[in-house]
Fold this sequence. Notes:
This protein is an alpha/beta fold. The chain has one domain (6-271): Alpha-Beta Complex (Spore Coat Polysaccharide Biosynthesis Protein SpsA, Chain A). 44% of the residues lie in helices and 16% in strands. It has ten helices and nine strands. α2 (27-42) packs across α9 (244-257). The protein starts with 5 loop residues before the first strand and ends with a helix.
Amino acid sequence: MREEPRIIYSLDAFPISNNRWNEGNKFKETIYSTALSILYSHLWYQDIELYADETAYKFLYMLPCRVTKISSNEDTVIWMKSKIDVMEKQTKPFVHLDNDVFIKKKINFDFDKVIVEQNDYELYSMYQYRLDFFNQYTKDLDYWKPDLGYAFNCGVLGFRDLELRDQFLKVYYTLEEIFIKNNNPKIARIEPCIVLEQYNLAALLHHHNIKPTLLLWKKNLFENSQLADRIGYTHIAGQKKYRIDIVEEIENRLFKLFPYWYKEVKNALEKEGIA
């Protein structure tokens, strides 16, 4: 059996404290969600590392995994940049899990080169108007496809092939530079992250004729949600995680399943006046 990849997380508190997606301050909700995600993973995996900026570190340093401080990018637009930063640090196979991913049964992350959560082709309309912006500036990129018709959801994103990881980082930085140079929020507010990460990866893999391993491999979202239930996988993507019933459910699960750690995190929050 191949070496089990390490599990990594990243958390830069700046965007989620500063009105990302016009949602106001979602710091406390993100701390509880990150804690629950890590504690579920801790039931199944040995090698887990959370990379947290100084603000988040104060509330999560006590969790039963390695917790490493990173610098905040202080960027509310490219809010997933810390994920790229920590992927770059890895020297052996890894799987990055988003902070709103919960693994309730052990999943064996057995994959060849790269693993993603699922194919996002049914949500492609979310990408199209963003691609209209990027396609103006990407004509010289040999790997780029202006209208691929799909992208990969990266709630789970892992690399066993670290050279391929390096290629992905290279195209990420190229596209990020294009965005920073040409973005004018006075003309239009573009939410670039799903293109910078998820579409960009799909274009690169298509260019190299590489098929990623899909954690959820069925043919549509409905069947994938059934598969996710069966394997004990939950990803509460996007703004849905801030619905009051979901927020309460996350805190309640943390309290019921991991009462010691819930108390530790809650005490740390209360000490800083975050109730």
